[in-house]
Amino acid sequence: KRATSNPHFRATANNVADLNSDPNLPTEQVLRLTKATTATSIAVATTITAVIFPALAPALYLAGAGSYITAAWIRLPQLDRKVRRPWIALLVGIGSLFASVLVRSSHGAITGQEAPFPSPADAGGYVGYLGIISCVWLFIRSHGHRHPRWRKEAAIDGVIVAVAVAIVIFASILLPYILDDTIDLGDRLTNMGYSVLTIVLVGHVATLAVGSGVRNRSWRLLAIGSGLIIISDILLLLHTTGNPWAVRPAGGTAVAAFICGTAAIIHPDAARMSVTASAKPPSFSAGRLLMIGIAILIVPLALSISLITGQDSSLLIIMVGALVLGGLTLYRIW
Question: Structure pTM?
Answer without folding.
Answer: 0.75
